[in-house]
Design a protein that fits this description.
Elements: E1 5-6, E2 15-16, E3 21-22, E4 35-36, E5 41-42, E6 53-54, E7 59-60, E8 71-72, E9 77-78, E10 87-88, E11 93-94, E12 104-105, E13 110-111, E14 121-122, E15 127-131, E16 134-137, E17 142-143, E18 156-157, E19 162-163, E20 174-175, E21 180-181, E22 193-194, E23 217-218, E24 231-232, E25 237-238, E26 249-250, E27 255-257, E28 275-277
Antiparallel strand pairs: 1-2, 3-4, 5-6, 7-8, 9-10, 11-12, 13-14, 15-16, 17-18, 19-20, 21-22, 23-24, 25-26, 27-28
C-alpha cells in the first residue's frame, strides 16, 4: 500500500488519507497512520505522503490545515511563512491591519510602548518621539504638558519662578526656593542664584528684581526671603529709592531723620518718614 493512504484487509484500491492529513508510511492497513498536517504547514487534497508546503505569511497554521490560510494574523500581530502562531508587534511598532506579514515603525509624534499594538498612541507628556519607535524624555530644566511632541525643541523651558529637577516632566518640579530666584529653564531650587542685595525673593520668584525693598528701606545682604528682611533706613540717613543695598545718603543739615526716612529733608507729614526741621533749642 503506497504512502498517502492505507489498505484495509480486502481493499481493491488504497484508501486516501483525508484532506488536512498525510501519511509517509508504506504498507499501512488502517487510518491511524493518517496524521494531522504538521503545524506551520498545510496538506491540500487527499492521499498526501507529506505536507504540501508552508502556510502563507500573514496567516498561521496550528496543525491539521488543509489550506495555507488556516488562521489570519490579527491586528497588532504578524506572521512569517510557516508560522504556528501569530507574533505580537514589538515595542516601537504597530500593525492596524489583519493578515500582516510585518509591523510598521511608530511614526513621529507617536509612541508604541507595549507589544501587540494595533494603533500608535500620541507621544506622552514629558517626552518627545522623533520616529522609529523612539521615546525620549524632555531634558532636565524643561517639561512638556502636551502630548504628541516630535522633537526636543518642543519641550518647554521650565517656567520662570519654578524649576525642573529631572527629565521627562509634564509639570515643573516645584516653585523656586525662598531667598533665590529662578529664571526660565532652572533645574534646581536655587535657580540662578541668591536674591541680590536690595531685594527679597519669596518662594516662586522668577527674576532678581521682582521684589525691591521699598523706599525708606534697604538690604545690604543677599538671600532676602520676604519684606521683613528689608532694613529700615538708619536714623540720620535716608533711602530715596526702592531696591537699595545701602542708604542713599545722610540727612540734610538743619533737618533730622529718624529711621525709615526716604528724603533728605523730611517734613514729617507727607509719608516720608519721621523727621523734620531741627527744633528750637537744637542744632542739626
Amino acid at each position: 500500500c503506497p504512502s498517502g493512504g492505507y489498505c484495509p484487509q480486502g481493499a481493491s484500491v488504497p484508501l486516501a488519507c483525508p484532506s488536512g492529513t498525510f501519511s509517509s508510511a508504506v504498507g499501512a492497513y488502517n487510518s491511524s497512520v493518517c496524521v494531522p498536517c504538521t503545524p506551520g504547514y498545510y496538506c491540500v487534497g487527499s492521499n498526501m505522503p507529506e505536507p504540501t508546503a508552508a502556510c502563507f505569511a500573514g496567516y498561521y497554521c496550528t496543525g491539521g490545515a488543509s489550506f495555507p490560510t488556516q488562521y489570519p494574523a490579527s491586528p497588532g500581530h504578524y506572521t512569517n511563512p510557516g508560522s504556528t502562531s501569530e507574533i505580537p508587534c514589538s515595542i516601537g511598532s504597530f500593525q492596524s491591519a489583519a493578515y500582516a506579514s510585518a509591523c510598521a515603525s511608530c511614526p513621529p509624534s507617536y509612541a508604541c510602548l507595549s507589544q501587540g499594538m494595533s494603533s500608535p498612541s500620541p507621544c506622552p507628556q514629558g517626552q518627545y518621539c522623533p520616529g522609529s519607535g523612539s521615546v525620549v524624555p524632555c531634558p532636565i530644566g524643561t517639561y512638556s504638558a502636551s502630548f504628541g511632541l516630535q522633537n526636543i525643541s518642543q519641550c518647554s523651558p521650565c517656567s520662570a519662578g519654578s524649576y525642573c529637577a529631572t527629565s521627562g516632566l509634564s509639570t515643573p518640579t516645584a516653585p523656586c526656593g525662598a531667598g533665590y530666584y529662578c529664571s526660565s529653564g532652572a533645574s534646581s531650587a536655587t535657580g540662578a542664584g541668591s536674591c541680590p542685595p536690595g531685594y527679597y525673593c519669596p518662594s516662586g520668584t522668577g527674576a532678581s528684581n521682582s521684589y525691591p525693598c521699598p523706599q525708606g528701606t534697604y538690604r545690604p545682604l543677599s538671600g532676602g526671603r520676604n519684606l521683613s528682611d528689608c532694613f529700615a533706613c538708619s536714623a540720620g540717613q535716608y533711602c530715596a529709592t526702592a531696591g537699595l543695598s545701602q542708604p542713599t545718603g545722610t540727612c540734610n543739615a538743619t533737618y533730622y531723620c529718624a529711621a525709615g526716612v526716604s528724603i533728605s529733608d523730611p517734613n514729617g507729614i507727607d509719608n516720608t518718614g519721621d523727621g523734620g526741621l531741627c527744633p528750637i533749642g537744637h542744632y542739626c
